[in-house]
Amino acid sequence: SAFMSPSNPVATTFMEVEGPASKPPTLEQIKAADATLSEYTMFQVADNYLDENLQEMYLAMQQPKETEPELSIEEETKRLEEQLEALPDGPRSLYDEDDSPEPWDNWGEETQESSLERAGTLEVPEPASDSEFFMNWEPNNVDDIDASAQDEKEFRERMKDCQIQSRRLSKAQSSPKAASYFAREPNKREGYDRLWVAAIEPACFSSLTGNIRNYGVEFADNFGDFVDGRPEDGLYTIEDVALYKARKVYEVTGLPCVASRTSFEIEPIPTESMTGPSTAKSTAPPGTSNNPKVYSGYRINDVGNHVDYMAEALKPLSEPTRVTRFTSCICFYDGEMEIFEYCVCDVDLIYCNSRRTFIPMSQAIHNMIETLKMTFGLEYQKWLRAKGDAVAFAGSGGVIGSASIKLRDRVLKDGKVLPNEIIDVSAFMDSKVDVDLMDTCARELADRFVDTKPSKILTIATTGLVIALPMAKYLQVPVVYARKERNMVMADTFQAGYSSKTVGKDRELIVSKKHLDPNDRVLVVDDFLSSGSSQEALLRIISEADATAVGVGVLLEKVYESGRQSLSGFNIPIQSLCRVASVKEGAIQLLEEEGFEQ
């Protein structure tokens, strides 16, 4: 289990392991460990104690000890009396009167002297610009520029021999098409308004994109194939390497980059001078404690197969509780700004392997996203709120709810009630179609479902097509329509029965199987929602195709029938532009909708 402190981004793995190694190592294990560790001698360090108690012991050893001769009680008393006599007023009792002023002495009083002092304070002029007391808080003052230039010079000097490189980045640099690819606009239809690029471990890339995509950031690519060109590249600090990678990617792509680097450490075995001969624990079996490759600490500013090699080599020769540490650094660079975030994970040696890298990386990514949210003012699902605002306040003509209002007016003006409570709207959306009205309604209804990300629209021929076709234009998805009769080319089909007042009972809807796939997200669209029988039939077809239903959208809904209730079990959103409350005595009464508040 891992514990992460909110205030300190450190993950520490606590393992209940006590006592020495289970059995002494064999001669083959000692030889194998010596051969493996010989490859990493350049990364040996002597003072990277990771356990807090060992850190305190080591620091205590480094402090020079000042020894004073022990004094007797008489000598201590004499020294104290000499110190009291040396006071300006001589020795005084703790209860002697003290004439020095106290804060409460003049509480509530306004003296002339204090008023003059305050007036004088207010009249003190501002220091001259060349004064040593003058502080210039301008963001780009000369001192800041000089410091930045010096930091830049030092960074370039440190990394001048670095041979860390990415094969894919080299290909992008030489490709004539790469420049236009990285210069493209973010996919605004998917809700992105920023285009970045990454250079982190491929296994962690999905964690980064999955967490930040809801804040409108699209990643053009991830150059996760950076490798060290020489062993010495593992000696650079993780901050320098992460920044080096981010800068290299930025130079080629011109996009802000998020890069990472993780280091691996093994703490040294404590010496007897630290723990004392009586309490010292030998964390290496007999015959191995004198081998510096075993008791030395290691620090490699990279992770890879060497983590597993070193851990497996040291496990038979060390206490299982010997501490190892993974430290992840995430760097953001956009050509001007550098941002760093970290996380640390401590793991007992017995449980150490390269997979532990994902623990600090995941937390460091989270920390970086939180920092970027504050730095750039990233908003959660900003695109979705914008779409909602467009539906509520803009409509299609810049008027609040214009599509719904226009449809309601048209229903009241041209709609008729036929026997059996059938609503006749053939004057504008059946045998005769008002194309402009349908386009306006389709735009508003499409905006209501844009967040469901449908891949197809499913409707019924032919009445449902008047709204499904223009909706498909705004959602940029194909339309699949269910037929009521089988034709000659429909061999393999889905089918579902339904009944309706307008077409009668025991009717059937038929859809070709080649038009619906299991990975489809299907939006059901129709002209009317009455009993819900036809929409339920379409939803059964979607279920039979193993596709996903994302919603039901209709132009008119008869709220006095049970259509909405019959579809409630599918747990999908249902939207209608105009709701009919009653058709009693041949009069169409619409449900009073709640107004929008801007």
Please specify the SSE layout and strand pairing.
Layout (H helix, E strand, L loop, with lengths): L1 E3 L5 E4 L13 H12 L5 E2 L6 H11 L10 H13 L26 H11 L19 H17 L8 H8 L3 H5 L11 E6 L2 H11 L4 E6 L15 H16 L3 E10 L5 H4 L16 H4 L1 E4 L4 H10 L8 E11 L4 E11 L9 H19 L5 H13 L7 H13 L1 E3 L3 E3 L1 H4 L5 H15 L6 E5 L4 H11 L3 E4 L10 E8 L3 E9 L8 E9 L3 H12 L3 E11 L4 H4 L7 E9 L6 E2 L8
Parallel strand pairs: 2-9, 4-5, 4-6, 12-13, 12-16, 16-17, 17-18
Antiparallel strand pairs: 1-2, 3-7, 6-7, 6-8, 8-9, 10-11, 14-15, 18-19
Helix pairs in contact: 1-12, 8-13, 14-17, 15-17, 17-18
Q: Could you characterize what this model shows?
A:
By secondary structure, this protein is of the alpha/beta class. The chain contains 20 helices and 19 strands. Helices cover about 35% and strands about 20% of the residues. Strand 14 and strand 15 (about 505-510) form a beta hairpin. Helix 15 packs across helix 17 (about 435-450). It has helices at about 25-40, 50-60, 75-85, 110-120, 140-160, 165-175, 180, 200-210, 240-255, 270-275, 290-295, 305-315, 360-375, 380-395, 400-415, 425-430, 435-450, 465-475, 535-545, 565; strands at about 1-5, 10-15, 45, 195-200, 215-220, 255-265, 295-300, 325-335, 340-350, 415-420, 420-425, 455-460, 480, 495-500, 505-510, 520-530, 550-560, 575-580, 590. Strands 1, 2, 3, 4, 5, 6, 7, 8 and 9 form a 9-stranded mixed beta sheet that branches. A 6-stranded mixed beta sheet has the order 13-12-16-17-18-19, sandwiched between helices. It has a two-stranded antiparallel sheet with strand order 10-11.
